[in-house]
Amino acid sequence: MPGDRASIFGEDEELDLSDFAPKQVAAGGPAAPPLQHIRKLSEARGFRSREGGRDPVKRRYRTGRNVQLNIKVTAETLAEFNDLCERHGWVQGEALARAVEALKAQLADSH
Prior knowledge:
Blueprint: H1 35-44, H2 75-88, H3 92-110
């Protein structure tokens, strides 16, 4: 019948997995290092924990902006835009809104 697939198990549809089991760690085998040791090594190499309080650098803005705008720009324009955002503490949506208002004002003054 078209559309029927051959079984990967062959004719025997009953697959015996009774011998399948996870590996057992031998007594005296490698144990996990202490958590304090792992934390000390990771912090020394620049990894930060995700546990605990929120990172003060990363914020979640609730601005009502929920429409995405994708545009192509030069690398220089993007760098300048991001620099402006960082220097003034603006998120990109706020910087774009300010730029649009400034352009509208400039165009109104020129007419």
